[in-house]
Amino acid sequence: MQIIHHIKDLRQVIKEARNARGELRVGFVPTMGYLHQGHASLLEAARKQCDLVILSIFVNPLQFGPNEDLSRYPRDEERDLAVAKATGTDIVFFPTVQEMYPNPTKTIVSVSGVTERLCGTSRPGHFDGVATVVTKLFNIVQPDFAFFGMKDAQQIAVIQQMVDDLNNPVEIVPCKIVREEDGLALSSRNVYLQPEEREQALVLSSALKMAEKFVQEHEGSLQAAELQEAVKRHIAQSSIAEIDYADILAYPSLEQVTDLRSVPAFIIALAVKFGKTRLIDNTIIRW
Ligand code: AMP
Predict the structure, then answer these.
(1) Percentage of residues of the chain with pLDDT beyond 70
(2) How far, in Å, from the CA of 40 to the mean position of ligand 1?
(3) 2-175 maps to which CATH number?
(4) Residues spanned by CATH 3.30.1300.10 within the chain?
(5) Of the listed 36, 39, 126, 234, which one is catalytic?
(6) Minimal-distance CA residue to ligand 1 atom 6
């Protein structure tokens, strides 16, 4: 496994690998590090599908708001490298902020529509930061396949829209959410949770399970407002859960929907704060 810090070195190594082998499938997994089994599952999917697997670890300042957790975002370089190695990753790209943004960027990639709800509303500028850094990383790596987790379902919708609009020749591969045994979706931010918060955070996955059952029981017709009400009531069982949003939207368009039977698929998307920690989770229902 090679660890590369500079863009020009990474380009050179990929160029050499492509020259050495005509039909090289390059798989790319962009992350912010503090890797867990969710990240590992993306690397494993890439390993199965691709000849060269590249992981990037970069905590992108552009996607954090002024009052967010950029300065305290958890980091553990040594453990990250061990996780990467265990999944058979070929290259870890570990740039500094200076390497990625030697000058303040004057170009921002901004996707409209799909960014206008959910985290797009509660984290203004977040998806501009994501779309911009992913564009930069795609330009640096030029992958054939890029692997993203459905944990960030809106992020996948945004990136797919961007790739389609800009004719980027990369295939986006969505990978399913990896959870703890008790249901909590794995997240680098779970380390912030105090024991009481960790326990109460289970209300997220249990709300989604309840919602799936609710949908099954209302096969005939189902209004988004009805389901949303049931989900919010479920989350309110936790005395410390502070709902940022609990929304039901068509997926992947993220357009508002009234009659859930009128769309082929919809998302139940949650963002809930436990103390200072904001967690997200979702499930997608396809008829
Ligand atoms: P992050 O490091 O949080 O930016 O995440 C990097 C990638 O890992 C994104 O594509 C995430 O959607 C994905 N990811 C994070 N948590 C999970 C999870 N629990 N299951 C699957 N993928 C995940």
Answers:
(1) 100
(2) 9
(3) 3.40.50.620
(4) 188-282
(5) 39
(6) 31
What is the pLDDT at residue 21? Answer: 87
Yes or no: domain 188-282 corresponds to CATH 3.40.50.2300: no
CA–centroid distance, 31 to ligand 1, in Å, is 7
- Atom in ligand 1 nearest the alpha carbon of residue 32: 2
Instruction: Taking the CA atoms of 27, 31, 33 and 36 in sequence, report the sign of the dihedral they define.
Output: negative
Q: Which pLDDT band holds residue 219 (cuts at 50, 70, 90)?
A: confident
Q: Is the CB of 126 under 6 A from ligand 1?
A: no
Would the CB of 190 count as within 6 Å of ligand 1? Answer: no
Write 160-169 long-range contacts (CB < 8 A, 24+): 160/252, 161/111, 161/113, 161/114, 162/109, 162/111, 162/131, 162/134, 162/135, 163/138, 165/111, 166/135, 168/135, 168/138, 169/144
CA of residue 39 to ligand 1 center, whole Å: 6
Interval 131-189: pLDDT, tens: 999 999 999 999 999 999 999 999 999 999 999 999 999 999 999 999 999 999 999 99
pLDDT band at 22 (very low <50, low <70, confident <90, very high): confident
Give me the helices (H) in 142-268, please: 153-165, 195-200, 202-217, 224-235
Q: How far is the CA of 151 from the centre of ligand 1 (A)?
A: 6
User: Between the CA of residue 24 and those of 11, 41, 147, 278, what are the distances in Å?
Assistant: 15, 21, 17, 40
Whether ligand 1 lies within 6 angstroms of the CB of 149 is answered as yes
* Active-site residue flag, 39: yes
Q: CATH 3.40.50.620 in the chain: give the residue spans.
A: 2-175
